[in-house]
Structures are given as structure tokens and as C-alpha cells.
Amino acid sequence: MSKNKKVFVFDDNVDILELCTIILEDAGYEIKTSSTSNNIIDQVNAYTPDIIFMDNWLPDVGGIDATRELKKHEELKNIPVIYFSANNDVASLAQQAGADGYLSKPFDIHELENIISKHLGAASI
Fold this sequence. Notes:
This protein is α/β, with parallel strands linked by helices. It has a single domain, classed as Response regulator (Rossmann fold), CATH 3.40.50. It contains 5 helices and 5 strands, in the order E-H-E-H-E-H-E-H-E-H. The protein has helices spanning 14-26, 40-47, 63-72, 90-97, 109-120, and strands spanning 6-10, 30-34, 51-55, 81-85, 101-104. The longest helix is centred in the N-terminal third of the chain and has 13 residues, at 14-26. The chain is globular, with a radius of gyration of 13 Å.
């Protein structure tokens, strides 16, 4: 059995982080969460996730800047970043940030699981 895929969720809303943790652990993923995208490179390097969910509204460094920083980084740029927002223009925000996809909030469990499967292939459970 291959090791579980690792998901990193950046969001300043504790409820969203808890919800994602419950859903994703239940689906067999490892998950790490952070409420700030400060030192984004260090945070991501320390965990080496397979996929990242990035909220738009983060304190200090916003989601767009954090995503751009990741995408400029030689070792981290290939990790898919899914932009994550309740903004009605989430698609254009994701594009501005250079994200690999997006998920509108509120989302349902299937949407969350589908977008991970799409970018990572089926979960190893």
C-alpha cells in the first residue's frame, strides 16, 4: 500500500480548517492546516504536500501573493495549488495567482474529493 497523499490547507477560518481535516482524514489523506501564509516557502517545504488549498483572504500575505511565490519556487512549483474562495470571481483570482484549479466556497464534500482526485489520481486508502 502506498503512503497516504498529503494535503495542506491554508485558510484563516478555523471552521473551514476543521471541516477539511475531518473530510480529508476520513477519505484517507494526511492533512496539515495553517491560518497564515507567512513564510509560505518554509511552511510548504517543512511538510512537502502533494496538493495545496489556498484561501484568498489570508492575513498579511494574501492567497494570490502566496501562490505566486510557490509557483516561482523551483522545487515547489509543481505542487498543484487549488484556489479556495467564497468570492464570486474565484476563477479569475485563481488565474491571477497562477493556481492549478479552484474550488468555490461553500463547497460540498464531493467537490473537494473530486478536485483532489483530479489532480492527484485516486487516493490510496
